[in-house]
Amino acid sequence: MTAPVEIDFIAEDPSAVAEAEGAVVVLAAGTRLLPAAQAADKALDGALSRLVASKRWKAEAGGSATIPFPPGMKAEALTLVSIGESTDAHAARKAGGAAARALGGRRGAVFAGGMGDAELTAELAFGLALRGYDFDVYKTASGDEDEDDAPEGVVLACDAPEQTAKASRPRAALAEGVFFARDLVNEPANVLTTEDFAARIAAMAELGLEVEILDEPELERLGMRALLAVGQGSASPSKVAVMRWPGGGDEAPLALVGKGVVFDTGGISIKPAAGMEEMTMDMGGAAVVAGVMRALALRGAKANVVGLVGLVENMPDGKAQRPGDIVRSMKGDTIEVINTDAEGRLVLADVMWYAQQRFRPAAMIDLATLTGAMIVALGHETAGYFSNDDALAGALEAAARAEGEAIWRLPLGPAYDKLIKSRLADMKNTGGRAAGAITAAQFLQRFVQKGTPWAHIDIAGVALSKEARDLHPRGASGWGVMTLDRLVRAREKG
User: Fold this and answer.
1) What is the pLDDT of residue 86?
2) Catalytic site residue 271?
3) Among residues 200, 259, 331, 345, which one is catalytic?
């Protein structure tokens, strides 16, 4: 998998900035130069002081300006990055992201002395690591360096290197979980088949996770015919992967369930050709669940968590399910298939029911790139979610807010049930264009047992980005790994 950039923490000597080679980053707190920036300012005959006093300078966190081949210094480029006037964790991460963009594909140094707080400096390093992601597995030529290239290596000079390194360890585990999720989403479907996805999950047993892979005969025995119907037109066999992290003693686990459609043509209800190449990301929910489980194992979380992902491929083969088919779920309810492109909810329905039947979870959260309607509603800035439990909803929102991942609650209600009422079966798998994200959630709620706190997160708009953001380049974002890790931490004991 893509590894986070290696960061070496050393004690800062501001006078060393003039001798630093490669790409060099120094910091300002708004318009106030921190010690290494002050030293660079002297070498540049006051150029940085004039910069921060000008209208061109962006003083908010993440603002930056670069001077190539600065006179009086050995650096190839000097970048001044702002940590903001009043720095918090989010501001520090943004500054770290700006530092990663400035370093690009080069080896470099970041001078962070003067931040004063080891935790904040660790947040800056975390932001640098997150933005320094570069999925270049299939690039045979490096080409020109740009801000989407990962730094080759970083020296981070700071006030308390040992404390900062210690504070960075759990964040490094989280970064690896985010990167694992991003890699999965970025992989093409001819590589990340259902079998390859399952193999990557099985390999995480080396980290201490308890992993089981359920194959088609077992899924048939369990009665997961809704899930199996989605994949029956594909040469890739359907699977369910179960990951258990038993770090919380005898307590009931938190269950995380992910939609893992490794490629979605729409099936017989085939999608338009334009943009179909992006349907390699329709396993984004499963990627997030796998990434969270990896992070929990790496940091030794003191909580019981079980992650389950349904791995299928939706193809228009001669054996594929048709509009008008009726399938029976593991729960026993029958479903009329109106549109074979509304397949993710069929996968989730069976896996959610299995999770509750087997593990009796204290709460359950599912994630899926489920509906285009969610993109219409919230665009590519915010994930939408639904919940049957206000306490779980509040905890989820608090975790998302703490990690800077935008999320918005949408309504559930019996009035939407009539939209998925079927003439022939217990329900149909789509209610049409009106309230499409809500009817999908309403469908899933029918597979939540009474008394189980549950939330459904639709990440269709946030799993993949066509533009670079503060903490990730173009492509997969890994949205949700940090939020769910934070949610688990809030539930940990001891």
Assistant:
1) 87
2) yes
3) 345
